[in-house]
Structure formats: structure tokens, C-alpha cells
Design goal:
This protein is mainly alpha-helical and 88 residues long. The chain has helices at 15-25, 47-59, 69-81, and strands spanning 6-8, 13-14. It has 3 helices and 2 strands; from the N terminus they run ββααα.
Length: 88
């Protein structure tokens, strides 16, 4: 994924926005990334990727999702179609 690709499709939050939020606001736990435009509070698909970004920034290395934006979007669509999204 590239820096300007969407990480949270539910709330249209890019990877850049998440990384900047981590650097600026320095959340203590990954769940505080929900304060970044609601990221991670919709279907739940992006939560593991948000955690990966959080851990990478805290550890001083680059977070890589190891897939293209197209693959990420297709896997999210399959996740939603399978009914695995969060139930409220």
C-alpha cells in the first residue's frame, strides 16, 4: 500500500492520516486510533492494519501491509460479503 491509500474504507481514512495522527497525538494504545476520523470503528476490517501501523511507529520501523491497494480493497470486500463485519 502507498501512503495515500485508504486504510479505513468506512470512514475514508488514509494511511498517511493514521501515521500523522500517531506522530502528533502519540496515542498510548492502538485503540486510541479510533480518534483519527473514527478509523477502526466501522466494519472492523482495518483494525489489524491499524495495530500494525501503531506498532511500527512506536517501534521506529515502516509499517508495510504487503499488499496493493487493489488487493486490500478486494479482501475487505470479501470480508464484508462473508458477513464478518462487526455487529453493533
Amino acid at each position: 500500500m502507498k501512503i495515500d491509500d485508504k486504510l479505513c474504507y468506512c470512514f475514508h481514512v488514509s494511511k498517511r492520516k493514521v501515521l500523522n495522527h500517531i506522530r502528533i497525538h502519540q496515542p498510548r494504545v492502538a485503540s486510541q486510533l479510533s480518534e483519527c476520523g473514527g478509523a477502526g470503528t466501522g466494519c472492523g476490517w482495518c483494525v489489524p492494519f491499524l495495530k500494525k501501523c501503531f506498532d511500527a511507529e512506536r517501534g521506529g520501523y515502516v509499517a508495510d501491509t504487503e499488499m496493493t491497494a487493489e488487493q486490500y480493497e478486494a479482501e475487505r470486500a470479501a470480508y464484508i460479503a462473508a458477513g464478518k463485519k462487526r455487529r453493533t
